[in-house]
Amino acid sequence: MKASIRKAIEEGTVRLVSDNSEAYDVGDVVKLLSGGPSMTVTAIYPDRDVAVCWFGSNEIYSWRLPAASITRAEETDVAPISQPPSV
């Protein structure tokens, strides 16, 4: 890998573009193209894979997926952020 590309990846100035022409950033909410739960992008790798995490069955899961296998989650798929209880 060229030093200039490696430096851009390390600095975060490069965005991953998947085969389906979508760019993802850490924190984006995505879904598998085949369906499933909403997942949060937690890392982007130079080989076009993304790390994602999601919550289900009272556990947090994480996995590494090809960017071509995901798409942005629809706004209706994203759970609202709950506010902590008042003290």
Total number of distinct structural domains: 1
- Give the tally of β-strands: 7
Strand % is 35-45%
Question: What is the CATH architecture term?
Answer: Roll
CATH domain class name: Mainly Beta
What are the low-pLDDT stretches, counting only 5+ consecutive residues below 50? none
Proportion in helices: 10-25%
How many separate helices? Answer: 1
Which class of secondary structure composition applies to the elements?
Answer: mainly beta
Q: From the alpha-carbon coordinates, what is the Rg to the nearest angstrom?
A: 15 Å
The third-level CATH topology is SH3 type barrels
Order of secondary-structure elements: HEEEEEEE
End-to-end Cα distance, whole Å, is 53 Å
Largest sheet: 5 strands, antiparallel
State the shape: globular
Question: CATH superfamily membership, which one?
Answer: Ribosomal protein L21
Mean pLDDT: 79
Spatial strand order of the main sheet: 6-5-4-3-7
Task: Characterize this entry briefly.
This protein has 87 residues and is mainly beta. It has 1 helix and 7 strands, in the order H-E-E-E-E-E-E-E.
Structure description:
This protein is mainly β. It has a single domain (16-76), classed as Ribosomal protein L21 (SH3 type barrels, Roll), CATH 2.30.30.70. The chain is 10% helix and 43% strand. The chain is built from one helix and seven strands; from the N terminus they run αβββββββ. The chain has one helix spanning 3-11; strands spanning 16-17, 23-24, 29-32, 35-44, 49-56, 59-66, 70-72. The strands form two sheets. A five-stranded antiparallel β-sheet has the order 6-5-4-3-7, with no helix packed on it. The radius of gyration is 15 Å and the shape is globular. It starts with a helix and ends in a 15-residue tail after the last strand. The model has no long low-confidence stretch (mean pLDDT 79).
